[in-house]
Amino acid sequence: MTRISVATRDDLDNVMEKIRAIVEVGECMVSVTKKATPLNETMHKSLHCYLNNLSSKLTTKGISVKHICDRVSPGFNIPVSPGFMKDFFRATCMAVYGKESTTDLTEDELKRLATKFSARVKEMTGVGSAIQLAPHTVSALRCEK
Length: 145
Known about the structure:
By secondary structure, this protein is mostly helical. The protein folds into 3 domains: 1-32, no CATH class; 43-76, no CATH class; 79-129. Helix content is 50%, strand content 0%. It contains 5 helices and no strands. Helix 4 (82-97) crosses helix 5 (107-125). It starts with 14 loop residues before the first helix and ends in a 20-residue tail after the last helix.
């Protein structure tokens, strides 16, 4: 199979000539594929807005991640990601202190919650991770690898 790549308008001049040459040799299948265009900022923000709105509606209706995963496919699950753990921590914050945001916690509440959260995750999974609460600058924090 012969492939013709057209990257600029200047390349268009030779396309018909190249197609004639391909057809003459018996290679008669011609297909055109448009190069994928990355999302622009507006499209990215629209997607973000859509997902936020959908998430809010699902949460309001009481739909959980488990509910969705159970219905997608048997054995389907969502990988544990930093975003998932943040949501899980935030939900724990709401359940324990009735606060919707971790920014509403006092330093003492954060320390207690983080300790209990870490212990509970380790109890459920066998995996634990220490939380660094001492540094007062972001640059002082180190993430485990």
